[in-house]
Automatic annotation (TrEMBL), chain A:
Coiled coil: none annotated. This is CoA-substrate-specific enzyme activase, putative. Keywords: Iron, Iron-sulfur, Metal-binding. It comes from Geosporobacter subterraneus DSM 17957. One of its GO terms (molecular function) is iron-sulfur cluster binding. The keyword Cell membrane does not apply. It comes from the Bacteria. SUPFAM superfamilies: Actin-like ATPase domain.
UniProtKB/TrEMBL annotation, chain B:
The keyword Flavoprotein does not apply. It comes from the Bacteria. Keywords: Kinase, Transferase. One of its GO terms (molecular function) is kinase activity. Coiled coil: none annotated. The keyword Transmembrane does not apply. Residues 4-220 form the DUF2229 domain. This is Predicted nucleotide-binding protein, sugar kinase/HSP70/actin superfamily. InterPro entries: CoA_activase_DUF2229, Dehydratase_Activator_Redct. Signal peptide: none annotated.
Amino acid sequence: MKKCYLGIDVGSVSTNIAVMDHEKNILDTLYIRTQGKPVQAIKNGLQEMKNRVGNNVEIMGVGTTGSGRQLAGIMVGADAVKNEITAHGVAALNYVPDVRTIIEIGGQDSKIILLRDGIIYDFAMNTVCAAGTGSFLDRQAERLGIPIEEFGTMALQSKAPVRIAGRCAVFAESDMIHKQQLGHNQEDIINGLCEAMARNYLNNLGKGKEITAPVIFQGGVAANIGIRKAFERLLGCEICVPQYANVMGAVGACLLAKEEVARKGKTDFLGFEIAQSEYQVKSFECEHCPNLCEVVQFHRDSSLVARWGDKCGRWNNLKDYRDEKLA
Amino acid sequence: MDIKIGIPRGLLYYYYFPLWNKFFETLGAEVVVSQPTNKKIIENGVKNTVDEACLPVKVYHGHVMDLKDRVDFLFVPKLMSIYKNEYICPKFCGLPEMVSSSVKDLPPLIDTVINFRKSRKKLFKAVYEIGSHVTKNVSEIEHAYSEGITNYHNYRALMKQGILPIDMNKDHFQKRKVISVNQQKVVLLGHPYNLYDPLLSMNIVEKLRAKDVMVITPEMMDTATINRYANQMDKKMFWSFGRKIMGTAFYAMEDPTISGMIYLSSFGCGLDSVIADIAERRVRRSSKKPFTVLTLDEHTGEAGIDTRIEAFVDMIRWREKNENNFSSHG
């Protein structure tokens, strides 16, 4: 039995799981689509992971991150529940200790993290606008009938530049349609889109920030070679895409869990068996004040394990499962 | 029966309520305040305000709607300028007009113009106009105003000690709770109506404090300090709140005990689009301190704000300790 740590990153588009051993080697990773059902995605992921490595490993600690981190933390009994920025920073530092810039583009979020001397120095996240994130690329790939996996390599075949407005996803789409009607090649349009995304990212998140090498590109979109090349052209430096780029959040969660367990000496992990548990979410509207908070009650095998969603703490303090609440 | 005067709990309520509350009460009127901002108030405000308005102005409209059927007068002064050669946000200059054309069935508004851009000579004229809705007796109004001003100074003195409106007894602005001593100091920049409305700000002050961070706002700063630092600008900042924010930001850049700055801006704020940008550029140019802008809008999802606050606090801790021993929760 190998002593291992489990990291779970529940994002808007994908749920990623990583298993890391004591020497910080990654044993296995899993990338599955959340498809709007985080509870099911986590269960499926754990089941799959159990089938793959469950018999050979002993889980010493578990960490969760991503926008669904609190939910995942409650489900699996996490030792560390951390935001994506810290998790991505910790993971990148593990692979490239002198990293100075992290470009992270996920499903709904994009982030820039600047590091100096091995610590996070500055960061920015995209605002409410989802232009230039993975879900927008997904949609465009679907519309053009190209599998997202081939999107990047197609961009590389482009011979002539086509400029697409990348400021807004809606305008970018109409711009693309317009360029198609004009008869431009599909490769050129795809390349134009990759450049527009990279430009938009640098204008929005990179604004006023000093982007210096080494630059690491991670998150689901890092798999897209077209976008990576576009960044390299715009920044004028080489961009490193680490081996586990698409699951770096989960890797970071493993590292944070390892640290936390070393500190407190035990894990709260509930075991892979929870994949067999029945989870139920029941919500109601609290009518105690005009805020009408939507309170969510989370049940495992018909026993209530957590409540969240209220602003005043009336409900989530009722059952002290863990001293944390979901936003 | 006493005259009922309604004061909406929005915009400069967080600045001047103690003054006018005491003023009207001393004159013998009954002051009615709208409920603390809640979902319904935001919803009503958003539905009944012109599209271009910013979130706090929309919320203000919601407070007006909450009050309008239970008062004799609504106190919606037309605040144009409170300091010489300075202005308040342009939206305040048209606030009574905006309210009266957007909200139907209003009681009469007390919409006195307050404009001290040139001088304060007309201060008492404005005070008399406001008070005359309750009484015509000049000496009574004078007395009530001096009572109000005393109350206002007490309130501002409490704020300067770090006791924010959320720490005070809701309706009377008396000190309510004792604030614990926190480790890191973070300056929270922004307009008072964004910072101190717990629902609008998604409770950012309490969220930071829960992470053991001491929050410093422009209202906690000494006026002379603010002015001294604000004078470092190449050109005078002609918005009063802009001056306070910039002065605080410059101060925070220099004070070594301050770990970072968070600018809380609301979507659609024209002033913030300028001030936040100047502040960010200046901070980046001449200091190494972390600076982040958080934008508030009608979103009810707090996850985005929470992630950013958490990452920001992690970052300042990590930068200060320069080692990996940050907490794993929260």
